[in-house]
Amino acid sequence: MSPPRVFIFRPVDESGASHRQIEAAGCEVVVNRDGATADEVLAQIGQSQVLLGATFRGGTIDRRLLEASPTLRLVSKYTIGVDDIDLAAATELGILVTHCPTEANWGGVAEGTVAFMLAMLKRIRERDRAVKQGAWRSDDLQGHYLGRREDGYAGLTVGIVGLGRIGRRLAELLAPWRLRLLGCDPYVDAAQFARRNVERMDLDTLLAASDVVTLHCSLTNETRGLIGARALALMKGSALLINTARGPVVDIDALCDALAADRLGGAALDVLPVEPPPPGSRILELGDRVLLSPHMVAANQGGTLQTAIPWATEAALAALRGEVPARVYNTEAIPLWRERFTDRSLL
């Protein structure tokens, strides 16, 4: 009998130590080659019991790929996000999907969000450029004072859309600034809002009341295009929009329209609907009204995906032992998975 196969569709362990650990457990490990064709990937999946990797660069691990192997047990992600997987198909097929919500990842996103906010509100780029071009102090380089003061200054209001791990950490990081914090998340209980001094409200009210709106929701059918023309029209003309979630949460054309017409103060985007943006994209031509980052807000020294490697590796080995691994994202698939694989160890 052939050993179980683990296909690493996008590796992150440059040392290869975790690959050797999987091989030592009795598995065949196949690492996807750069530039592999769709047919080559399909052939490797068709012989595999576990798929392991970071964000899938071939689009989506869809039903066709998931059905390629009748013995596929698990898709184990090094990342938090699972929007590159057809979760409905995986669940229907009894295939588990695990992810790695490591603090290094979500904590890095929260820290990066603060950096975006300060860069935009304090006009950091503009001031740097002015000095390097020989200019000095001028009124158009004034920034914003963020926090509430004892002299009666009310401070700015920050609206957090999505109060999961990232949104909660952001609220904690902003607490000393004495900002007014608003939050919208229908899937988080009221206690989480209260513990972080975040006022709970519906999305429309949050958009209208906030000086900064920052997005930290997962990409789902519900959130795709969440911030479109209607939502942007509710926001203050001076407001700042930050998106470190997923690009398709924002209607990029509607955002470009609002920025070009000065109906919005600015935007800071780590993510875009198409990555990288094609040359000539409107979002590249808006100057200082938009701050762009190449989907790297979580890429930090001391905070990389390396901490996820043991989690993802153990998930793969557990599934091959016939055990439900930790951090299953599509938990509704567990009953069918148990029927198919529990106590059916391949190791």
What name does CATH use for the topology of the largest domain?
Rossmann fold
Strand order of the largest sheet: 8-7-6-9-10-11-12
Helix-strand topology string = EHEHEHEHEHHEHEHEHEHEHEEHH
Distance between the termini: 12 Å
Mean pLDDT: 94
Shape: elongated
Number of domains: 2
Our count of helices gives 13
The CATH architecture of the largest domain can be named as 3-Layer(aba) Sandwich
Radius of gyration: 23 Å
At the first level of CATH, the class of the largest domain is Alpha Beta
Looking at the chains present, what oligomeric state does this protein adopt? single chain
CATH superfamily of the largest domain: NAD(P)-binding Rossmann-like Domain
Number of strands: 12
Structural class based on helices, strands and sheet pairing: alpha/beta
Measured by DSSP, the beta-strand proportion falls in 5-15%
Q: What's the helical proportion of residues?
A: 25-40%
Low-confidence stretches: none
Query: Sheet with the most strands?
Result: 7 strands, parallel
